[in-house]
Amino acid sequence: MKLGRLLRTAAHIAVAPLPNLVKLPIYRHLFGFRVGKNVRVGLSVLDADELELADGARVGHANLVTRTRRLVLGADAEIGYGNILRGGDEIRLGRWATVLRFNVLNSIPDNDCETPTDPRLSLGDGAYVVSGHRLDFTDRIRIGRNVIVAGRNSSLWTHNRQATRPIEIGDFCYLGSEVRVAPGAQLGDWSILAMGAVLAGAAKSRTVHGGVPAKPIRDIDVDDEKTLAKKTKKEIPEDLY
Length: 241
Description:
Elements: H1 2-15, H2 20-29, E1 34-35, E2 40-41, E3 45-53, E4 58-59, E5 64-73, E6 78-81, E7 84-86, E8 90-93, E9 98-101, E10 104-106, E11 120-123, E12 128-131, E13 134-136, E14 141-143, E15 148-152, E16 155-156, E17 159-160, E18 163-164, E19 167-169, E20 174-175, E21 180-181, E22 186-187, E23 192-193, E24 198-199, E25 202-203, E26 207-210, E27 215-219, H3 222-229
Parallel strand pairs: 1-3, 2-4, 3-5, 4-6, 5-7, 5-8, 6-9, 7-10, 8-11, 9-12, 10-13, 11-14, 12-15, 13-16, 14-19, 15-20, 16-21, 19-22, 20-23, 21-24, 22-25, 23-26
Antiparallel strand pairs: 17-18, 26-27
């Protein structure tokens, strides 16, 4: 089995530098991947057991996908460049969702967790993970629609030694730079997690949360709501949500 995995990885490495006109048919016919129309894949190693790239999906250069059972990119979803996606049962990007650059999305393979785990990461439609963040989905992480994980150097952790708990980020939320989200944390819909905050436990909807540990600061106002409702990319259709 290990030899088969090594041979498969070697095949993916060999395919990575090929042009799209050659690479995409190999994905479809040799690996059995589902690849839609107008898909672009750069110089990246996509070593997943199952891969689905919907119409218009894009993968840039210098990305590494390894030991992931299933990777799904919805229509017009994008993985930018320099990202590492490792492990887990499934990584799913919704329509127009983006993982931009230098992010690490990691689920510990063959972990020794004492609690039941569901190693899946999902980004809702239009969700956007910017740069230099680390998302540990040894247990489940769900990031809702039109969420921005902004700035740099934030981390979402679902495990603490051998114990795990899932993380839930609601729809239309904004996570500021350098935040920390602990195992089992929940951020309600239409909320803001301020820069540098540490979120543990449940945080209510329609609220600005901040501090260490994060606590409610105030309700969101009209200007906040307009900001949270703004599309993460200008080309996203008006009726996406």
